[in-house]
Structure formats: C-alpha cells, structure tokens
Amino acid sequence: MTLDLSPTCRLADAAVHFLDRRLAEIGKARPARILEFGSGGSTLWIAERGALVSVESDPEWFTIVQSALRAHCLTADLRLHPIPLHPVCSAFQADAFDVVLVDQEDFAGGRHRVACVEAARNLVAPGGVLMLDNSDRPKFAAAFEIMKDWPCETATQPVAKPGYNEGSATSWWRRQP
User: Fold this and answer.
1) Architecture of domain 13-174
2) Which neighbouring-strand residues pair with 102?
3) Rounded Cα–Cα distance for residues 70 and 73 (Å)
4) pTM of the full predicted structure?
C-alpha cells in the first residue's frame, strides 16, 4: 500500500487549536514531550511541534508513517508494538510527557483505548494533558470515569472535514500543576 501522508491533525478543530497553542507555549521553554497511541498524519503534524514518541500496532501502516516522516524530514521515536498498546507505558517514567494522545484503531469494543488512557494517566506531567479522540463513542465512556478527578473539556466537530466526521468529538483532561 502506498499513501501520500501529510502533516494533518485529524482531531476536532477546537482540539487541534488547543493542542497547537499548548505545544507552542511549552516549546518556548523546551521541546514539548508527546506520547501518541496510533500514528498517521497527526504523527507528522506533532513531530513538527515537539519530541514525539508514537506507538503503532499495524506493521504496514508503521512503514508508511516511517517513510512519510523521512519524506518530510521529520524525526520521531516511532515504535511498532502489538495490540494491546498500553503495556508500552511501563517503559516510561511517571510524569514523562506534556501531552498524551490516544487515537489508535480499536477493534476490541473500546477496551484498548480505555486501557491506554488508564495506563498513560500517570505519564502525564503536572500541567500536562491527556487527549482521547472520538470520545463521543459510547465504547470509550469508561475513560471519563477513569479521568473523573481531572478537569475535562470536549470539542465536537461542527462540520465534516477530510478524515473526520461531523459530530465526532475529542476530549482532553488537564492534570493540575
């Protein structure tokens, strides 16, 4: 499979704007540290803005993203890991990331994304953010219970855009400093 992958963040528009501002703010002092579950156009977009670790489960997609990073002269720590992805969290210290983005494919009724939210929660540094894309889907509802003690914001996409459906939502939780 070949694909022309471009640096595009396919989250709800308001979430993209929030993330862009947050990464720029952190970037004034040092490179932002980001952990991403599920790679794609957002991997390239985020790699332009900080130090990224991206975890992908699909070997073919991993190769496509790896090639796209090279083609765009971007660097990221791209890791191939079998499903489920959440065990990769044990490789990192607590408070290691400014942003964690959970957006991988989930064919297990939501269990994999929710497990990533739960496992990555302690990896978010004080003042950092954990984001869950497609958070409007009922199969990801358990994530809200896991994160209930962190302030939450949700952005709903008002109109369809390439790669993102109208009405889809991205939620993010902020860890208190």
Assistant:
1) 3-Layer(aba) Sandwich (3.40)
2) 37, 132
3) 5
4) 0.94
